[in-house]
Amino acid sequence: MQKVIASLNIEVNDEGYLTDFSQWNKAIGEEIALYEGIVMTDEHWKVIEYLQDQHRKNVPLSIRKIGKSGVVAIKDFYRLFPKGPLKISSKIAGIPKPVSCV
Amino acid sequence: MKRLLILGAGTAGTMMANHLRPKLDNQTWEITLVDEEKIHYYQPGFLFIPFDIYTPEMVKKPIERPVPKGVNLIQETIDRIDKDNDTVYLQNGDTLTYDILIIATGTKPVPEEIEGMKGDQWYKNIFDFYTYEGSIALRDKLRNWEGGKLVMHICEMPIKCPIAPLEFVFLADSYFIEKGMRDKVDITYVTPLSGAFTKPKATEALNYLLEEKGIKIVSDFNIEHVDSENNRIVDYAEESVEYDLLVTVPTNMGSPMIERSGFGDELNFVPTDKATLQSTVKENIFAVGDATNLPTSKAGSVAHFEGEILTENILRYINGEELKADFDGHANCFIETGHGKALLIDFNYTQEPVTGTFPFPGVGPLKLLKESRLNHVGKMAFRWVYWNMLLKGRPIPFVSAEMSEAGKELA
Questions:
Q1: B126-127/B107-109 β-pairing
Q2: Cβ contacts of residue B140 below 8 Å, gap of 6+?
Q3: Which of A55, B133, B237, B270 gives 20 to 30 Å between its CA and that of B60?
Q4: Model ipTM?
Q5: Does domain B2-108+253-318 have CATH number 2.60.40.10?
Q6: Region class of A35: left (phi > 0), else alpha (psi between -120 and 50), else beta
Q7: What is the pLDDT of residues B247-275, one digit of tens each?
Q8: CB of A13 within 8 Å of any CB in chain B?
Q9: SS3 assignment, position B309
Q10: Which of B156, B224, B296 sits opposite A102 (nearest CB)?
């Protein structure tokens, strides 16, 4: 479905994740973040850039992997994106909701 | 003489030895299995030990028993793989060279990964049940436990047999009802996932069962540490859950040997092509079972389905043919729900578990994603199937390696 984010028509799924990463821009990320109650800072963007980079390389993400990446400690990841950090940061980054392996 | 080396003589490794020995000429191919363990455990049985449903004797056999004739078994600890020189180093200093290597070293719970977990209270009021020792220690605890807050907890995904923790709380519910003390026990299920399971339809069915049995669920809980002094687990968001008895599934990791070999992901799992089972490390290295990083369940049924496809691909590799990209992530699991009933789920990488009949469309006799007594009978019969068919590499009648959509109520 389509949703207007940062004055643009953006394709999202029913949970609000972008379905086409190429539509993403920083203003969209900022608006999604605000909706989640987060005001973006450089510290936040550093994490988002890392997630997008991993997404481009098709690397599946997990909280443990992010903690080991050297980009952000898990504790800080929770401070920056409280409650579900990986889900919320993925939404802001415009990448799909992370799937946990079963 | 060419050498095929299999690291790990557990479910997947033993199965591969049984698949390949009759297919590879004795005069040309030597097959060697390496494992330090002396016992082969029927791991699905660990779930039943704490509730006195199985005795410890029912879940073990000498490790050499299911190994076929014509396969060497070396019982030594593996130090590392030198992939550039096609050599495996053992801890006793011996070296083994290979033409083809299959890594089947599985996964193990590592309680040391979580601060405060393996301290003074380990096996006093903090237990795991995915190990032989843990399941027996927990059985002894439950026999005399007077009740209180029982917390079943999962540290992080992926874990071996991701439905076993749910089965644990369902069986605990029946166990305490039968002991006439269910009112003295408060059961809570704590998971890093957003619900009971990772797949939506199964989560819906399982959430309903939890509710029906009066089991609370705390979801999206990512443990940071165990505060064993105050009997609580604390997550990164600083939420905590109190317990009197904590049954946890520690972080699951691949063998430290993988890390020593210089490959493997952050949990020591082997990077593996999810359709061919060839590792992405080197073309003559394959991986099977829990040791891989495949995005499917770590379970014996998965190893079984992988085994059929990997056997074909090893033969193709030997003949210089293109590998079959056929593995679809097929998993098939019975879920014990207590009181002599069970559910059955059948799924793969893309198709989540749904309701229906199995294995014959419209007939069953097993029901998918619905409780039935016959499903429970199937689960109990599985111990025989495991030793006599699964490990031997025999196909399970009517159940193919690639998942079938027949009989499933697809949306």
A1: unpaired
A2: none
A3: B270
A4: 0.78
A5: no
A6: alpha
A7: 999 999 999 999 999 999 989 999 999 99
A8: no
A9: helix
A10: B296
Residue A75, in any domain of the structure: yes
Does any CB of chain B come closer than 8 Å to the CB of residue A81? Answer: no
What confidence tens digit (pLDDT) does each residue in B163-178 have? 999 999 999 999 999 9
> What pLDDT does A100 receive?
60
For chain B, the domains span 2-108+253-318, 110-251, 331-390
Enter the tokens of residue B336.
């014990």
B236-256 per-residue burial string, b: 16 or more CB within 10 A, e: under 16: bbebbbebebbbbbbbbbbbe
Q: Is B236 close to A75, i.e. CB distance below 8 A? A: yes
Which of B210, B247, B211, B205 has the alpha carbon at shortest distance from B226? B247
pLDDT of residue B411: 64
* pLDDT tens profile B61-120: 999 999 999 999 999 999 999 999 999 999 999 999 999 999 999 999 999 999 999 999
Which residues of A are the active-site residues? Answer: 101
> Is the residue at A60 inside a domain?
yes
Q: What's the domain count of chain A?
A: 1
Q: Does domain B110-251 have CATH number 3.50.50.60?
A: yes
Residue A68: which domain range? 2-93
Q: What's B143's DSSP letter?
A: H
Peptide bond into B66 cis (omega under 30): no
Q: What percent of chain B has pLDDT over 90?
A: 82
**Residue A100 forms part of a structural domain:** no
